[in-house]
Target: GntR family transcriptional regulator
Amino acid sequence: MKKYEQIINDIILKIESGIFKEGEQIYTEKEIKDIYNVSSTTAVRVLNELVTSGYIYRVQGKGSFVSKTLVNKKIYFTEKNNFKHYFSPKDVEKSQVLSVDIIEDEEICIKFLNIRSQKLVRIKRVKFICDVNWAYQINYIPLSYLPGLDISDVDNFKELATMIRKKYRIDIHKEKFTKSISVTMDAPDEIKELIAPNNEPCFEFDRCTYHSNGDVFEYVKIYINYKYYKIKIHD
Model:
């Protein structure tokens, strides 16, 4: 287990055991550095991971505090599509690649990939069933993880996970990830036109998939029309 994972587990244990109570301030970046003898980079990563997983929230200029929603409580979370109410079981889900390009995006690099600005592969896809678009997905992967990548044939990116597994021996479906989910009425216009033409609300996902070395392998932004997705939460 990586050092930062050990620290995260230790802080989560303190939250779940009530040492840190809901609404209470937890360690600062400096305190994490001093207590666990780690670098600023590791301390920042620990706090970011705890925010992403929902255990803490940050208040600018004041610090990090224990969230009220997950304190002392473990839950089970199940994601399901809602296709059965709109499509036949025989209907097949497909995807269309809208674009594949090489970009530089400092905000994505720093905020989600935890790296300095560098070249990224950006893949935009729409998923559909029977000509009904139900999801829009954008993947961002550091180009350094995909040496020799040929982006000239976009159809190679329809099944992105399969391509990465076969070409680079990385099975992203088996790697650790974090995901945040929200509901928005303000999806970008180009996405609304494709999956929410009647201005329906969309589920908005931010997902980070981790490489086996602990670094973020990819950041994914996903929008799903609310009709085609549901979640079940139970303790």
Residues 123 and 160 are 9 Å apart (CA to CA). The mean pLDDT is 92. The chain has six helices and ten strands.
